[in-house]
Amino acid sequence: MSRKGKRWVLVKYFDGFPKESDVRLEEFNIPALQDGEVLVEAEFLTVDPYMRPYNRILAEGMVMTGEQVARVTKSRNDKFPVGTWVKGFLGWSTHTVNDGKRLNEMPTLPPNVPRSYALGTIGMPGLTAYVGFLDICTPKEGEIVLVSGAAGAVGSVVGQIAKIKGCRVIGSAGSDEKVKYLKEIGFDEAFNYKKTTDLDAKLKELAPDGIDIYFDNVGGEFATTAIMNMRKYGRISCCGSISTYNTDNPVKTAPIFERMLFSELKMQGFMNSTYAGRFPEGLADLTKWVAEGKIKVREHVTEGFENMFTAFTELFTGANTGKAIIKV
């Protein structure tokens, strides 16, 4: 009798907030291996906000996209013997037969660092923070940095890197608990944007002389207000727009172009894959900073593969603090 795995497949494209009827959890028969193939079994999987807009690049019936840490349990590939821990974009699936071309052996992590960190701070979100902040924002000691979505997997790392570089860091988050967490990991100032009735006044209170760097994870009206509070020669890194992912209605915002012109601001969107050449240095620095305690990590762990879609939707309700991880 063949073994069975489980996977989440797309039933229909998301329209507004993702619904469980848009996807399907199904069992499947795990096929026998051919020469050069391996069978991997997931230990940890990740859900990330980018999966919402990327929904449109999938064909209906395809496995939902995403990265996982997995163990080789059967092998007909000398490069990946049984027992090898690997990482790859294998989708929302408990088991995957792979030809080895889309797998990477797990990096060496410091003692007592969980393998799940390779999906977060010492992985794609951490690298996104690293290149998006250091390469685009070019921070200087003493500058004022504002991070939106600061308690998330990317924002929390951005803020801590900014502190390592000697900046003063302000973070926004969506609950008092998250604000407390930001203070715990070293943010100089943090506020609950849901309790802030006048964001412009709040930013002027916290940064009366203006903001030098804005790392944007949310887009929308928040981003517009932040840009209107930038100092001359300020830099804006556009990483995400989670506030608009689940709506088809364009957000009406104040014009920012005059501000950008006369303050000579630089604003750049980016895809972290463009900076792949920087990844080895970035992983080395992130690993070192985690080991030294300069970057603290919090994970929001959901137990059980069957709860993966719920964990995904919680990204958009603010339920998670830190990196969202699913443990199979």
Overview of this protein structure:
It is a single chain. This protein is of the alpha/beta class and 328 residues long. It contains nine helices and 15 strands. The chain has helices at residues 51-54, 124-137, 155-164, 176-184, 199-206, 220-227, 257-263, 279-292, 308-314; strands spanning 4-10, 23-29, 38-46, 68-75, 85-88, 95-98, 104-105, 144-147, 168-173, 189-192, 211-216, 230-238, 266-269, 299-303, 323-327. The strands form three sheets. Strands 3, 4, 5, 6, 7, 14 and 15 form a seven-stranded mixed beta sheet that branches. A six-stranded parallel beta sheet has the order 10-9-8-11-12-13, sandwiched between helices. It has a two-stranded antiparallel sheet with strand order 1-2. α6 (220-227) links the parallel β11 and β12 (230-238). The two termini are 23 Å apart.
- Count the helices. How many? 9
Oligomeric status of the shown chains? single chain
- Largest beta sheet, briefly? 7 strands, mixed
Strand percentage? 25-35%
Structural class: alpha/beta
Could you give a quick summary of the protein structure above?
The chain is an alpha/beta fold and 328 residues long. The chain is 25% helix and 26% strand.
Architecture blueprint of SSEs:
Elements: E1 4-10, E2 23-29, E3 38-46, H1 51-54, E4 68-75, E5 85-88, E6 95-98, E7 104-105, H2 124-137, E8 144-147, H3 155-164, E9 168-173, H4 176-184, E10 189-192, H5 199-206, E11 211-216, H6 220-227, E12 230-238, H7 257-263, E13 266-269, H8 279-292, E14 299-303, H9 308-314, E15 323-327
Parallel strand pairs: 8-9, 8-11, 9-10, 11-12, 12-13, 14-15
Antiparallel strand pairs: 1-2, 3-4, 3-6, 3-15, 4-5, 5-7
Helix pairs in contact: 2-3, 2-8
